[in-house]
Design a protein that fits this description.
With 282 residues, the chain is an alpha/beta fold. The protein has an 8-stranded mixed β-sheet, sandwiched between helices. The chain binds nicotinamide-adenine-dinucleotide.
Length: 282
């Protein structure tokens, strides 16, 4: 039996713990907030129930999966873990502190992975004494549904860590794609400028939110419009990623749209807060 510590029980952390537990791992879900852990456990239960209704998993598999997940507010369970997947708030100082602590708490052979969308893996790795065993495992939202995991290789990541992480992602039923450590990797380097441009279109009155999303859905065959997708990702997460792209690539084409900044300042963070570009009736 393998054990993973998933750090951060928000949008991504609950999905990551769900997928690992469903594929036979003991998963310790860790957060500073007890409320976030309770909410995450409820979300996982609801998502598994939906999978049972669809016939994707049996009731027995649902129960076994839930039994494999424990929750924690400290790193006590980390000493027995083979892998950490960090999915905490997208702030460098939060992640740097966490990697320092994970490095101290976990066995020397364990791999420390981050689900960061934009913070350099090489810089995160430098907070530890094992930069060769630090890597990016960039899952997509919603994790149980989306097949891609971008595997991000830092400057010091070893071949062995790379191979092992690719194998783990495959064993979770995902499709790993290897990329090098560069701001935004591939996914957000391409996606975020599109979302930002969609927000500029709304701010400049080029078209309404509905119109922008409909053009991209029906015209480009995207399953979701860019503004609905931004709401799903979280507008605070989108803003943080654009700020990193802007700063680290040094090109003004990545400057965050002022309307995005205003939405975040007002607490309209998208689906998770009940309101973003669209209304989620909370
Ligand atoms: P979120 O805000 O929904 O959840 C973050 C959680 O981390 C919160 O529950 C918070 O209490 C917890 N947390 C903060 N500091 C902590 C600490 N020191 N120890 C333990 N827990 C802590 O965020 P999210 O959308 O799930 O994003 C998590 C990570 O995944 C970020 O790095 C983000 O860039 C990345 N990501 C997000 C998406 C997405 O679509 N939302 C997609 C891919 C990657």
């Amino acid at each position: 039996m393998s054990r993973v510590v998933v750090v951060g029980a928000g949008t991504m952390g609950n999905g990551i713990a769900h997928v690992f537990a469903q594929h036979g791992w003991d998963a310790v879900l860790l957060d500073v907030s007890r409320a976030a852990l309770d909410q995450a456990f409820q979300t996982i239960t609801g998502n598994l129930e939906r999978q049972v209704k669809k016939g994707a998993v049996t009731s027995q598999q649902k129960e076994t999966t839930l039994l494999r997940i424990t929750t924690a507010t400290s790193l006590d369970g980390a000493a027995q873990a083979d892998l950490a997947v960090e999915a905490a708030t997208e702030q460098p100082e939060v992640k740097f502190r966490l990697f320092h602590d994970l490095d101290a708490a976990m066995p020397a052979a364990a791999i420390l992975a981050s689900n960061t969308s934009s913070i350099p893996i090489t810089t995160i790795a430098a907070q530890t004494r094992r930069p060769d065993r630090v890597i990016g495992m960039h899952f997509m939202n919603p994790v149980p549904v989306m097949p891609l995991v971008e595997i991000v290789r830092g400057l010091e990541t070893s071949d062995e860590t790379m191979h092992r992480t690719v194998e783990i992602a495959r064993a979770l039923g995902k499709t790993p794609v290897a990329v090098n450590d560069s701001p935004g990797f591939v996914s957000n380097r391409v996606l975020m400028p599109m979302i930002n441009e969609a927000i500029f279109c709304v701010m400049e009155g080029v078209a309404t939110v509905e119109a922008v999303d409909t053009v991209m859905k029906l015209g480009m065959n995207h399953p979701l419009g860019p503004l609905a997708l931004a709401d799903l990702i979280g507008l605070d997460v989108c803003l943080a990623i654009l700020e990193v792209l802007h700063r680290d690539l040094g090109d003004d084409k990545y400057r965050p749209c002022p309307l995005l900044r205003r939405m975040v300042a007002a607490g309209r963070l998208g689906k998770k807060s009940g309101r973003g570009f669209h209304d989620y009736g909370l």
